[in-house]
């Protein structure tokens, strides 16, 4: 049982607002509160905050930002919401979708205005499903850099972050009002901390093999590229308090993680004309459908692996990403001067590989539904990276309203003082992997953190 009676608590301290999780969601909520002079305490289970944010590419989609205006990009929240629903086949929660897209632009502008944060617009290519350039990311395009920026900003604003503080239980009354939490330290000591308001920002359940097998069985044996601390605690707490879990079968996968190196290879390589071939040297899918659902396609191949294949033009684009440069430094990137040379180096049939590369020079839509006309064909010299499919993070979670308040099961009434964001809340990807639009994870992390902070500020 993870819910305890308030009468069992011995609160050593009480915080007006308690945030569980010091990732992008929790830090955005805390920064929002401190901006208004509100006291907030952030609890983080790790010795150094990182979480799923640090493992991401650090890209936050937002519409109508100052960076877009400066680049001459016309975008609106309505267009962004349409793109989200288009990918999710109109199965994302409309109220939450509207809320996060309406606030995303102002949230990114606000974060970008902080002295410690730099979020330029990513230009030169579009991720699957986005109508315009709307990704904003640190210059080196890593989640680790984004975390560093947010933590530095939190330090300047004197936000209290207690690390190595693993929340193991909540104290709540029969009405669902949370009174505090129980924290367990690495040495086994226990501390009870009271609160007036609780914000759950501790991500989803991707690290819980039992829950993954139950809700997304196709990923039960896949590599997990997320944070091991994502054990589903927030969802269980919310449900026990009277909330409701929604779209638990939704998740973000990725079809391009270098093996055995475990390095994310940016999907920009595919969007700019790269292809994937299997161990036989044959293409097997539409690489432009989206990197999330491509995880399933790659895992269905012999050995659960594929090869990203591209040329020098695309290789140079990849070198703009820290992760790709890291992969290159670790010799995950194979270089060859001809098709025959590449086939020999990666161990595939040369004739089949030549046919796959020749397809890129065709005009029109191929047998997989990919429009080959939008990119130049691949030409020597060639490059390849051996990759597998992986689970990154779950997208299902607690049902919330447009202010990030956790709703009671079967109603639109919020629980008294409980908020959820990031992976703790049901996202905007609908109920399955194909509904994930690039950036949905960080989108709901920062916007729901912002919305929760703004709503708490009203009280």
UniProtKB/TrEMBL annotation:
It comes from Hwanghaeella grinnelliae. Its cofactor is FAD. GO terms for biological process: steroid metabolic process. It comes from the Bacteria. This is FAD-dependent oxidoreductase. It holds the Pfam family FAD_binding_2. InterPro entries: FAD-dep_OxRdtase_2_FAD-bd, FAD-oxidoreductase_2, FAD/NAD-bd_sf, Succ_DH/fumarate_Rdtase_cat_sf. One of its GO terms (molecular function) is oxidoreductase activity. Keywords: FAD, Flavoprotein, Oxidoreductase. Residues 17-430 form the FAD-dependent oxidoreductase 2 FAD-binding domain.
